[in-house]
Task: structure prediction
Amino acid sequence: QVQLVESGGGAVQEGESLRLSCSVSGLRMNRYCLGWFRQAPGKELEYVVVISTGGLDSYYRESVKGRFTITRDNANKMVYLQMSNLKPEDTAVYYCTAEEYGCSTTQFDYKGHGTQVTVSS
Result:
């Protein structure tokens, strides 16, 4: 059974930082592209960043480039999202995702339950 469990969300002020974590179980890490998607109130789900199986390639949404960093630890089955200089428009529920064989910004095979990030101005 595949499980993606996010943690680390919270409420912060504009300009502050947060680090999201995702614990992965039930799948072989070296076969899955991992990522973070988010959904703001009243808006559609959108990709934030995805990272390739070996961690060498990552693809960031333009609005988070230079502020967010994704890393993965295949040995410990974790993926992280370091978010800096947060803005109110980053407010959303953040979901950890996994896709086998591909590394798409529009689809995934598995998604966690999400963690809320709220940024106040």
